[in-house]
Specification:
Elements (H helix, E strand, L loop, with lengths): L2 H32 L3 H27 L13 H30 L8 H28 L2 H28 L4 H29 L5 H12 L6 E10 L2 E10 L5 H18 L3 E9 L1 H9 L1
Parallel strand pairs: 2-3
Antiparallel strand pairs: 1-2
Length: 297
């Protein structure tokens, strides 16, 4: 599938998230005020902030689709990674907010038991967001999009928050508010852990980091190409969902241009079999040891 087609397909996931957040925040706030549930109201306001995160992902995907220009020779694909980074910040803020509210709940007893309907609204919201999470996760794997994957993890965090809100509401109704506090602490930590994972991955990409295991795996493929004597240099980086690889290999010095070019094409084919969205630049150098051995003979 074409790269830009993938990015356009990723927009669908962002729009689904935005639609879900608008719908759920509306019913949570409405029933939260009606049913006297602070937990559901807080969850509703949380979803309002998630709309911003989803919009950031959508904007990042849109910018990523801009073709290369005179100032961006490699295109604008890193806008997607920046959107992932922004989503991680928003998730971290939400996680800290959940932990803060849980800590505050220890010292602030509930004044009025909420309506049981608010608990079911929270559980319903958790199910909806889990379905959205599964859809976006599958979509991100299909199109290899870090931004859509970040959106999916944000969806999962919101499903957990709604689940915690439902448990907390039931705890308040049945006189066991400790359930709310314990659940909130666990969920808050999960959200922050997820945010940190997305943050590290985004920073790794933006600073041209490259997985060592990927280097080793792809290096083995290059060394197996007929005609390659030595793999002298391997550099890789990710630009959005596209991988750029720069290689230097040594070949026999007596090869002509056509034969050397055939080797570069074979290297590209080998790598692109396992990495479809990959741009490869191969530099050919003569192996001096062959010249020395010929002179000795």
């Amino acid at each position: 599938m074409d790269l830009y087609t993938n990015l356009r397909k990723g927009e669908k996931g962002a729009w689904i998230s935005i639609g879900a957040y608008i719908f759920l925040s509306s019913i949570k706030l409405a029933f939260g005020f009606w049913g006297s549930s602070e937990a559901l109201k807080a969850d509703g306001f949380n979803n309002l902030t998630d709309i911003l995160a989803s919009i950031a992902v959508l904007v990042g995907l849109r910018i990523s689709q801009k073709p290369p220009d005179e100032n961006h020779h490699y295109g604008h694909l890193r806008a997607e990674t920046i959107a992932s980074l922004l989503a991680s910040f928003i998730m971290a803020v939400i996680g800290l907010q959940v932990l803060t509210n849980a800590f505050r709940s220890i010292f602030e007893p509930i004044a009025e038991a909420p309506s049981v309907i608010t608990a079911w609204i929270a559980f319903f919201s958790a199910i909806i967001m889990y379905v959205v999470y599964r859809y976006n996760l599958k979509l991100s794997q299909e199109i290899k999009s870090s931004a859509v994957r970040a959106a999916a993890y944000d969806n999962r965090s919101d499903a957990l928050v709604s689940l915690g809100a439902g448990i907390g509401i039931f705890g308040a109704i049945f006189g066991a508010p400790i359930l709310d506090i314990v659940t909130a602490f666990i969920i808050g930590l999960i959200i922050i852990k997820t945010a940190l994972d997305i943050f590290k991955e985004s920073v790794m990409t933006l600073t041209d980091g490259f997985d060592e295991d990927e280097v080793e795996t792809l290096s083995v493929l290059v060394r197996r190409v007929p005609g390659v004597i030595t793999l002298r240099d391997f550099k890789g980086r990710n630009h959005g969902n596209v991988m750029f690889i720069d290689l230097t290999v040594s070949v026999a010095p007596n090869l002509n241009v056509i034969e050397s070019h055939w080797i570069t094409e074979e290297i590209e084919k080998k790598i692109q079999k396992v990495k479809t969205n990959c741009v490869i630049l191969v530099h050919i150098e003569p192996d001096i040891s062959y010249i020395d051995s010929d002179e000795k003979e």
